[in-house]
Amino acid sequence: MYGSKAANGVIVITRKPLAESTLRVQYNFTGNLQTPILSDYDVLNAKEKLLYEQMAGLYDAIGNIEEQYKLDELYNQRYKAVMAGQNSDWLAQPARTSFSHDHSLRIYGGSQNLRYELTGRFADTKGVMKEDYRKRYNLGFKLDYFVSNSIQISNRTTYAEISAQNTPYGSFAEYVQMNPYERMYNDDGTPNIDLAWELNNPLYEASLGSYSRNGTNTFTNITDFRWDINNMFRIAGHFNITSEMGWSDIFVSPKSRTYKNETDLTKKGSSTQVNSDGTSYNGNIVGTFNKVFSDESLISANAGWEINHSKMSSKTMQAIGFFNDKNSYIGNAAGYPNDKPYGNLAESADVGAFVTGNLSWRNRYFADGTWRVTGSSQFGENNRYGHFWSGGLGWNVLNEPFMKDIKRHFDLFKLRGSAGYTGKVSFSPFQAMTMYQYSNEYEYKYGIGAIPLTIGNVDLCWERTMTYNVGLDFSMFGNRLNLVVDAYLRNTTDLLLDQSKAPSTGVTTATANLGEMQNKGLELQLDGYIIRNNNFSWKLGAMGAMNRNQITKINKALEEINKENQEMASTSLTPLPQYAEGESVTALKLVRSAGIDPATGREIYIKRDGTLTFKYDPADRVLIGDTEPIYNGNFSTSIYWKGFSLYAFVNCRLGAWIYNTTRVSKVEGSDPNYNADQRVFDDRWKQPGDVALYKNIADSSRPEQTDRFAELENTFTLGTLNLSYQFPESVCKPLHVRNMRVGINFTDILRLSSVKIERGTDYLYSQGFEMNFSATF
Amino acid sequence: MKTFKSIIALFVCTTLLTACEDFLNITPEGQIKQSELLSTAEGIEDAMYGIYSQLRNTSLYGQELSFHTVEILAQTFSCMNNPTVTALTEYEYSNTNVKSVFDGIWTAMYKNISNVNSILAAPLVAEAEEFPYTIYRGEALGLRAFMHFDLVRLFAEQYTQNPQAEGIPYATEFSLKTPEFESLQKNYDHILADLHEAEQLLANEEDYHEDSYFMTDRQIHCNLYAVQALLARVYLTMGNNTKAAEYARMVIEKSPYKLNQKTDIPHDVAGVLSAKETLFGIYYAEWYNTVSTMLQQTVDRTSLNPRGDIKTIYDREKVGDDYRLNTDVYFTTIDRGSTPTDRLCKLTEYYELNGQPDKRPKELILGINLIRMPEMYYIMAEALLDTKMDSATWYFDRVLESRGLTSLATRKPAETVTQELINLERFKEYIGEGQTFFNLKRQNRPISAWDDARNTEKTIPASNALYVIPIPDSEYENRF
After folding, report:
1. For A452, which of B97, B115, B365 is closest by C-beta distance?
2. Where are the domains of chain A?
3. Which of A81, B103, B106, B226 is the most buried (most CB within 10 A)?
4. Does B132 sit behind a cis peptide bond, omega within 30 degrees of 0 on the bond before it?
5. Binary contact (B28, A347; C-beta < 8 A)
6. Inter-chain contact B283–A62, Cβ cutoff 8 Å?
7. Domain layout of chain B by residue ranges
8. A1-18+110-118+132-168+209-377 CATH
9. Could you report the per-residue pLDDT of A700-743, keeping only the tens digit for each?
10. B237 vs B81, B92, B144, B463, CA distance in Å?
């Protein structure tokens, strides 16, 4: 929030006088060891999977005798293999334990009116899936030049290169889906491509010459200048330009099973090349006025202007028809695909100007104010500029004469208050004004077509929020105990929200100014040293935040429709409105479920009047809870003992309702042709009488949205654990080292939650630790 | 010195501010304001092209409403192990996979209807009095009626059963206001009103034939004959045989399109518009990709298998040589391991399939057929069935002959046409074109299906549970 920061007081910046310094060298090393955690993917074994398939009806030809004979034969064949011990471990195939390393070097020094710095970095990051990598190379040079004591110019140039390769083993999700009763390899060691249900063997794809690589080359130049005109006026400027070129090269071998239905050799195999380039620049100029009085009073003012611009474009080219698995050179392709070219162009710009003023009287009373204007190309023409203001007051109680006697017990005792407006345009111009989009997809023999992006809402306006904030900063016992408390009230008018629409409108969602919203919250930060001396210290800290969100008013039109719907409700039940007064904007509304019917394996829904039904009706939705947590916080502790430091960080999130979509797709919506989660086998309804958590195993359709998948989340995470050691001078000196440090860092160590974490399957989940070494010579 | 400084400061400030407008004026590539686009004839044409191109969406005539969903509902195809197709063959409209298919159709259709309403609201089109704006307005009104009519046929009861039944919303405005539901009677009033106005606006379109690219290849536009043929289709669905016959005869006698000779039959609709018979179709150069995987190939769980008794259906009442049954015309046989499998190859583009797209004659238009001439003859036969049996048979015989079959009149002994014969011929002719389900629904007939288990034909009795597809949940959930 603008302005609220300045209520803390004003920091007057003075430059450290330059000293001749000798050349210094700093080196930093980070190593990262990761091991794949396969046990988190709880998939069925061969025997269970085959049984699942049978129960799901894959071997039932529904009475067709000829077909049934074939299916029986298939089943027997697979059953025999399973009995003979066939149980392929697909998950382990693409996995590896990886070690990544990252080196950076910094050489710096200076003289009377010159400072220089040279940086370099090399990093080779490897993932836990075989053969993938990401390599980084950085080189940078920085020069600070002092023309006189009042003018400083600095320039930094950096060049960065990234080249990466995706694993040829493909998405990990494919391995999770492979059936364990299938052999991975034939007797001669080649991958088995004759798999059940016509699945593709990802190991076969990995054995081909296909690849997918990409990279970027980035060049950045930053120039800063500062001119101290006199001891009251100063001008500073910043200009930054970045140019980035990206490329991507994807080759799919003609032997790939993607082409198994393609008979034309000149259409097998493809090479796709994407080239992108982008330039962005931004700059700002700030003028500052500072006047310090003899009684520590101060007046300061800033005025500034800034500008941003970025442009990015990409082009895609594809060639098809490669005759050789290894020969991916585009010059050997048979031709272009019967397809359209693809390109992308994006450009945006914004400008802004601001004025701020600060007053401080005898370091006791502070006042500040900010005014700011921002204009952006992304806002529609009619509301291109937004104006914001804010103001703040501060009172440093400690410096009052009446505190004189007890002042020595305190370090900080300050009260703050601020108020200000912020605005938000979270919609694109085409949402406010109907825009047509041309595309070669809409080509129609004699011309290129255009269609509206969406139906524009001409009445859309900026969302505005008025924030009131009061706070307290407090420290005592020589900064051993620190407390920061903030309470806020945010009133939003013209609340912008995406509203679902009936499809017959022509759109399924529309952004609208829905009414007014209020956020109330309290933030608290407390930390303190339990013990602090030269060789040993122990610090504990806690931070917590609570927020309550409520729609305080809904706009007239919407209110009328809600009312109308309720009046009609006497004759027929109408769905709950998406947004309603008194509710949170993130309210979760679902139909209640009475679980799975033991007799039929179908889900029983609870209607709003409490009766049970098999028929899903969205009108039966009720309010379940809020998807935002009631309390969000963290605890941290750090211990220092003779050069050793230990730091731990625990995060907690309490009282949020979530709709568990992974359970929906992995357990209930699972496809019996693929391998599945253990719960599909254990917890789904199989025969009359089963009391099950999930519906009939033979029904693979997606379940309706009910509170069966809503869970109340309470989670504690031990996010970071860090141990480091700073070598004492007695060790460093003889080695001609100024400073030396080693450390080890663990992340994502422990998670206690009322909701089982569902691991993503696109990439393999891994755990590990990072080690650090740094030295300055 | 001080004034000089302020002058400089003022100058710098004003330049910076005026430069801002230009600096911030970035219109994303390929985008243009609605008011600007629809203020010129070229712009309106581009917007019309956009609408036609959206009809080939896979949720619309690119898949679901041509050879896929509505054909599966007519029991033409099955697909083992595909849960969605299986649920469709069993009319399980509460299945969530099936629900999302119909939600897709409903949503895509109304999106495109709103695109039409955008054009109709533009001043040049709304107050059209002269060429070319009358043509744009005519086509747009025709399209609006065409799209609503197919939604009504799918999601509402059959008009003749219960004209006062609840219909669908008829969208006529381009705005965020959700249109109200109305009765079936009102829906048909709207459809007829739009079609009759379109007919008047397009009445003189032949005067401008090939005047511009837009007036070239009228088959790929909602042209005058498309509108008249649609009127015949709508009146027949409403049970108004007199009007249906009036419009069908108009199309047969006045339009430049004629029935094929039997030698024209091979590959006449194979991913291309029939040069002689198509009254309305959509240009689509890439339809082959969709059609070949779903119909031509045997991709597990994706490709559709024609019903087990497909060949015996074509043998029913077959007197003469049915040119549609010639090798690789409507059907082909693919060797799949040991068992030969029947495939519907009627819609697969012939030259692309044979790897010679360059050999395709330039005058062929790639695309999807929506209304073809034989339907007009079937409508004549059906409309005249009760009153003028001879004429009815005469119209029916013309299609038989054009397909290579022996006409009823020349059979020994001579026969006359029946409703059953018309339905059978309609099925044979329009397989894969999404018309059979609607034809049976219109007459409230039971649907014949093939029972794989018992290897026999079975009959599914007609009912609203089968013929009226529930309107998607999303339509009721968010009517605010």
Report:
1. B115
2. 1-18+110-118+132-168+209-377, 378-446+462-585
3. B226
4. yes
5. yes
6. no
7. 36-474
8. 2.40.170.20
9. 888 888 999 999 999 999 989 999 999 998 888 888 888 999 99
10. 35, 25, 18, 17
